Amino acid sequence: MSTLALWIPLLPLLSAAALAAVSLSGRARATVPALAVLPIAAAAVLTLVVLFGHGTSAATESRIRYAATGGPELWLGARVDGLAALIAVLVGVVATAVQLYSVSYMAHEERYTSYSALISLFTAAMLVVVYSTDLLVLLVGWEVMGACSYFLIGHHWDRPEARSASIKAFLVTKLGDAPFLLGILFLAHGAGTFRVQPILQHAIAQGGHGYTAAGAILLIGGVMGKSAQIPLQTWLPDAMAGPTPISALIHAATMVAAGVYVVARLYPVFLVTPAALWILAIAAALTAVTAALSAFAQRDLKRILAYSTVSQLALMVAALAAGGRDAAVFHLMSHGGFKALLFLGAGVIIHKAGTGDVDELNTQALHRKLPVTFITMTIGLAALAGVPPFSGFFSKESIAGVAFDTATHTGPTKSLLGITPPAGIGWLVFVATLLTGFLTAAYALRTWLMLFGPLERGRFRSAVEMSQRQPQTAPQTPAPSSEPETETPTAAEVAAASEWALEALVAESIREEAATTATTATAETTGATAAAEKVAPKAKTGPEAPRAELLPLVVLAAITTVFGFVGLNRGWFPSWLGDADGNAYCASAASAGKLIQPADAYHLAPALLSTILALVALALGLGVVFAAARAKPGTDPNHVLGFLRKPAFLGFRADDLQDAVAVRPVQAAADAVAFLDTEVVDAYVRGSGHAARLLGEGLRRVQTGNVQLYLTGVLTGVVVIAAVLGFGR
């Protein structure tokens, strides 16, 4: 299977090359959909062949030596184990869904060909990361993904917010990539090779100190950057300026998943380093809770989903910190399915309604206009909330179970600053998981109510409806209405119609204040992606969406519905995931007292208790939002956040913090260097030339051509010299 895995990344790579050739030549554009979809679909099929062909077997490798450098050798090859096989399937399925969806969704785009080429290259890079047996080759795929994200997020380069979002994503992730590269070099120096398996064996044999400990801690920088964890989480919400299908690919199966995957791939390296576990646990706990609060406070649909991705990724990182690799990968797989579903469904809604603002979407009776999208989005939001029997319930419950088991059953084998890492991390992750589950259920239900729920529609007309009745170029002059008996409402009448309108105005004032610190998400229209405007573009009429857009929704909804049941058999998923790089190494090393024992999440009593508590958190989250909606009909349920609503909407001013900690000091240092360069170094150079010129001008004044003056000067000099010599005697 490892030999077959070598060829799988080549299919999307060849697709990217062919699409690039078509884009440059400007010919054969009719072949673009086939070149975009078929190679990716074939790669997805091959990943399934590798998965079922590998089964529960031990890890296999196929490799060739690329270069002998005099130090660690470089290898090109593929390593197939359960982890790689499962994640490759996720990448292939989601990438195929995105390419198929884009055939219709991006059909109007002039740059659709280059867009498809970049998606194919993006997919190839992630598959390289997944299958690579050498960390330097993994780094190549890692960096190619960063470059692709820059171009894809900035696809609408004519929009300033898209350009700034792409630059921000590139720079913030590169800030994490610098220590990530150093971490790889430390691990390779310690093990004498860049190959994954010897590095893991060296980490187990030597324990968590020296190069292994330094490498693990440095790798966390790259993980935080790619997976958008505190303090490098700010790029992901702003990345919503890119096309919606790109958001689905980035959030579900490629870039943000890469950070979690690397920790799972190099898991023993982190397990033997308690400091690394604590860093992961603390950062993940903070990220999960704050991102969930921010998702609850957002008005733009894509930004709600973006913050939810940050929060769910934090749960995966937290599970890894608590010793639950299986639970983390299970949730990564589950989340990839329903998050791709939610983003693609959001794309249908935004195209149909002409806006992504949930305050405007709630008046459009979307459940009747978009029946397929309504059903599939409901499934996706239920999975996000953790409602049984959808996949999100099982995967999030497994994280809670792992954390609780770690806190109550894993014995202390090491300590850090007097704290026992296993139990301490377990309690931290368990509490964060329950609190995040509560908040996730709340904002998922709030999103569903704002999109489809019975929140007293018709009490005021949205900006979309008013834009259909008034010309956008002269909004003060009412346009002729097809229903003359209905009077066009004024802005004052709209604002006074209900408390809902008041909530909308308050939220608008918050958004205006946030404009200086956060990029306002923008709506995508049928002709082009619209900039954020005061008046929303006119909504589309006609059929719900083309089949190319609805088919991926139906398939992903089906996967979301059934995938969670693999968690019912507690031993099935771990057996497929495999122990070659994880628990088998850890068990043998733990028996020798060399590392923290991974959590056993399958003790019956803690599993039942954690499940009950997870269900209680779910019920509380749903209940709070239902109660808020009933208490103030027609208002946004997120008013229950109270004083947290504004800071949560602003992302707790993380952008301001980054500006204060990183951007402004760097700018000040750059200004200081520029001052020294221009006012000191350049001034010295210019001063030397200026002094020479002044000396030359002074000498030129005495050269008049008068011989008598010259003789007078000579005689004067002789007299002066004689006087000096005479005085010296």
TrEMBL record:
<feature type="transmembrane region" description="Helical">
    <location>
        <begin position="208"/>
        <end position="225"/>
    </location>
</feature>
<keyword id="KW-0732">Signal</keyword>
<feature type="transmembrane region" description="Helical">
    <location>
        <begin position="74"/>
        <end position="101"/>
    </location>
</feature>
<protein>
    <submittedName>
        <fullName>Proton-translocating NADH-quinone oxidoreductase, chain L</fullName>
        <ecNumber>1.6.5.11</ecNumber>
    </submittedName>
</protein>
<dbReference type="GO" id="GO:0042773">
    <property type="term" value="P:ATP synthesis coupled electron transport"/>
</dbReference>
<feature type="signal peptide">
    <location>
        <begin position="1"/>
        <end position="20"/>
    </location>
</feature>
<feature type="region of interest" description="Disordered">
    <location>
        <begin position="463"/>
        <end position="492"/>
    </location>
</feature>
<feature type="transmembrane region" description="Helical">
    <location>
        <begin position="550"/>
        <end position="568"/>
    </location>
</feature>
<dbReference type="GO" id="GO:0008137">
    <property type="term" value="F:NADH dehydrogenase (ubiquinone) activity"/>
</dbReference>
<feature type="transmembrane region" description="Helical">
    <location>
        <begin position="328"/>
        <end position="350"/>
    </location>
</feature>
<feature type="domain" description="NADH-Ubiquinone oxidoreductase (complex I) chain 5 N-terminal">
    <location>
        <begin position="74"/>
        <end position="115"/>
    </location>
</feature>
<dbReference type="InterPro" id="IPR018393">
    <property type="entry name" value="NADHpl_OxRdtase_5_subgr"/>
</dbReference>
<dbReference type="InterPro" id="IPR001750">
    <property type="entry name" value="ND/Mrp_TM"/>
</dbReference>
<feature type="transmembrane region" description="Helical">
    <location>
        <begin position="425"/>
        <end position="445"/>
    </location>
</feature>
<feature type="compositionally biased region" description="Low complexity">
    <location>
        <begin position="468"/>
        <end position="492"/>
    </location>
</feature>
<keyword id="KW-1133">Transmembrane helix</keyword>
<dbReference type="GO" id="GO:0003954">
    <property type="term" value="F:NADH dehydrogenase activity"/>
</dbReference>
<feature type="transmembrane region" description="Helical">
    <location>
        <begin position="121"/>
        <end position="153"/>
    </location>
</feature>
<dbReference type="GO" id="GO:0015990">
    <property type="term" value="P:electron transport coupled proton transport"/>
</dbReference>
<keyword id="KW-0812">Transmembrane</keyword>
<feature type="transmembrane region" description="Helical">
    <location>
        <begin position="709"/>
        <end position="728"/>
    </location>
</feature>
<feature type="region of interest" description="Disordered">
    <location>
        <begin position="513"/>
        <end position="543"/>
    </location>
</feature>
<feature type="transmembrane region" description="Helical">
    <location>
        <begin position="165"/>
        <end position="188"/>
    </location>
</feature>
<dbReference type="GO" id="GO:0012505">
    <property type="term" value="C:endomembrane system"/>
</dbReference>
<feature type="transmembrane region" description="Helical">
    <location>
        <begin position="276"/>
        <end position="297"/>
    </location>
</feature>
<dbReference type="Pfam" id="PF00361">
    <property type="entry name" value="Proton_antipo_M"/>
</dbReference>
<feature type="transmembrane region" description="Helical">
    <location>
        <begin position="607"/>
        <end position="629"/>
    </location>
</feature>
<keyword id="KW-0560">Oxidoreductase</keyword>
<dbReference type="InterPro" id="IPR003945">
    <property type="entry name" value="NU5C-like"/>
</dbReference>
<feature type="domain" description="NADH:quinone oxidoreductase/Mrp antiporter transmembrane">
    <location>
        <begin position="132"/>
        <end position="407"/>
    </location>
</feature>
<feature type="transmembrane region" description="Helical">
    <location>
        <begin position="370"/>
        <end position="387"/>
    </location>
</feature>
<feature type="transmembrane region" description="Helical">
    <location>
        <begin position="30"/>
        <end position="53"/>
    </location>
</feature>
<dbReference type="InterPro" id="IPR001516">
    <property type="entry name" value="Proton_antipo_N"/>
</dbReference>
<dbReference type="Pfam" id="PF00662">
    <property type="entry name" value="Proton_antipo_N"/>
</dbReference>
<dbReference type="GO" id="GO:0016020">
    <property type="term" value="C:membrane"/>
</dbReference>
<feature type="transmembrane region" description="Helical">
    <location>
        <begin position="246"/>
        <end position="264"/>
    </location>
</feature>
<keyword id="KW-0472">Membrane</keyword>
<feature type="compositionally biased region" description="Low complexity">
    <location>
        <begin position="515"/>
        <end position="540"/>
    </location>
</feature>
<feature type="transmembrane region" description="Helical">
    <location>
        <begin position="304"/>
        <end position="322"/>
    </location>
</feature>
